[in-house]
Amino acid sequence: MLKLPNIQWRKSIFFRLVITYLLVNIPIVLQGFYLYNWSYNNASENISRATYTELSYYLDDFNSGVDWMERQKYQLLKDNELTKLAVSWNIITSVERRKSMSYVLHRIYSIKNSSKYIKDIKVYVPPISKTFSTTNSVYDLDEAEFRSAYLNLNISNQQIISMKDKLYLMDVRYSGGKKGGVLFVVQFELDTEYIKETLRQLSLYPGSGSILYSKKGVFALSSNQDIYNSVQFDLPEILEKNPAMSMMKINGENFRIYQDYSHNLNVNIMTLVPEKTLEKPLSFFSVWAWSFVLSSLIAILLVYFSTYRIIHKPLVQLIQGFKRMGAGELNSPIKHDKKDEFGYLYSSYNNMIKRLRTLIDQDYKQKMMMQKSELKQLQSQINPHFLYNSFFILNSLAKIGDVERIEQFTIMLGEYFRFITRNGNDLVSLSEEVKHSRVYTSIQELRFSRRIKVEFEELPKEMENIKVPRLIIQPIIENAYEHSLENKVEDGLLRVTFEHHEQAICIIIEDNNDDLKDEQLKEIQRRINNPAETAEVTGMINIHRRLQLTFGEQSGLILERSELQGLKVIIYIELRD
């Protein structure tokens, strides 16, 4: 695909047309998504309410059943005939015994048949060594079975007692209070299979499961053993939160958990429903919604391609012509056979470049001469300033009588001025400019060797032959000494590094002057970025302007705070093809 040269996509006509179409269609698509989300949330809330209502109804029914069994158990404990049988067994006749036993059996059969929650009712009567049961009628007392039941009754403080994976309601009748002997123990065994079946009736959705759970961990009954095995260790945490509805991930799948709690029985009922199951009723609408989105995207693509062929492609061809013209190529008219508006524009463009060819040579040469003159003028501003600093250093060395360093200094100073005063091209290789800057830092090291350390990186070989204006590195180093490092008593650091990128190079000069304030940095940045507002032309503004004149407006100086906490000056040069 052709690209728009030097024009941001968001500002192109093609982009605006596509955006206009999107602005028309996106509200419609969003309405569809809103309807989908509203339907999903509404259905989810209805399911949540219905599920929670079923749980509450189930728990109320279970609670009522247990309360009824408690009342029947209490009446059995107070039953005169059963008490008479336990107390007077040895003094009543066999006829009376049979009559009493028949009464007791009839009574417990009647109770069992009145509730589906009861699997068996047993009455242990130790004084007569008999056990009454709705399953086995009357049989001799099993001492081990009785002791186990009596022991669990005494150690458990729960209404529903769990014993050998079975659930019971139990109580005991003593003769003469608790300090007397045991007359009989009444034991109601709950039908766990029936309870599980009723729990399965609560699990209306595929993959769901319901759990009846004692909050103190006495028992747990589940309609789906796989789900229970996955969450059994998390049940205390779920019950601790105790919200009506919560979310949980089980085996990598999201489940909704609905629950209710009975304070009377200290029991929770919960139903776990897979999230994906709740989404199935909306699957058809989801397919429709995504079909709508897909059709909208196809429409957008059709508009995109038609706009591209009719408007964008001819427009790009015209823009490329202007780009060639901007680069100075005026011998490439646009060839076309169009009869529409673009045909008129193409013809006008071709006539324009013909007229420009007659004027461009004169205007271009005049501009280059003015640019070269400005380069000369800006370059000349640097030499007097450095000359003053050089004599100041020489004077300082003379005062301390350091003849050897004066000799070294004058040799390096001679090399320095030989570089500045030589005639020739205004541009030098970067290796020469770096060599000159190294001479300058060597001069300064004679003066600040104890206070200021210089880290001067080697110039990469691929950067050595790049042509740059003279005196773009040394004045910045000089500025670092004068305004940042000269007043440091110790541990001053100047660092010079190089970076080579695909389309640009960077020369980085930074120091560790931690006295640099943010306000000062912002002021220096403002002056560099707005040289026309500054009356005084400083060394850095001079360099910034010369770089822009030579390499274009994208090049120049970039000022930041260094990682060393001082000033970081980046000489950014954009390479031209």
UniProtKB/TrEMBL annotation:
<feature type="transmembrane region" description="Helical">
    <location>
        <begin position="287"/>
        <end position="305"/>
    </location>
</feature>
<dbReference type="InterPro" id="IPR003660">
    <property type="entry name" value="HAMP_dom"/>
</dbReference>
<dbReference type="Pfam" id="PF00672">
    <property type="entry name" value="HAMP"/>
</dbReference>
<keyword id="KW-0808">Transferase</keyword>
<keyword id="KW-1133">Transmembrane helix</keyword>
<keyword id="KW-0812">Transmembrane</keyword>
<keyword id="KW-1003">Cell membrane</keyword>
<dbReference type="Pfam" id="PF06580">
    <property type="entry name" value="His_kinase"/>
</dbReference>
<dbReference type="InterPro" id="IPR036890">
    <property type="entry name" value="HATPase_C_sf"/>
</dbReference>
<protein>
    <submittedName>
        <fullName>Sensor histidine kinase</fullName>
        <ecNumber>2.7.13.3</ecNumber>
    </submittedName>
</protein>
<keyword id="KW-0472">Membrane</keyword>
<feature type="transmembrane region" description="Helical">
    <location>
        <begin position="12"/>
        <end position="36"/>
    </location>
</feature>
<dbReference type="GO" id="GO:0004673">
    <property type="term" value="F:protein histidine kinase activity"/>
</dbReference>
<feature type="domain" description="HAMP">
    <location>
        <begin position="309"/>
        <end position="361"/>
    </location>
</feature>
<keyword id="KW-0418">Kinase</keyword>
<dbReference type="InterPro" id="IPR050640">
    <property type="entry name" value="Bact_2-comp_sensor_kinase"/>
</dbReference>
<dbReference type="InterPro" id="IPR010559">
    <property type="entry name" value="Sig_transdc_His_kin_internal"/>
</dbReference>
<keyword id="KW-0597">Phosphoprotein</keyword>
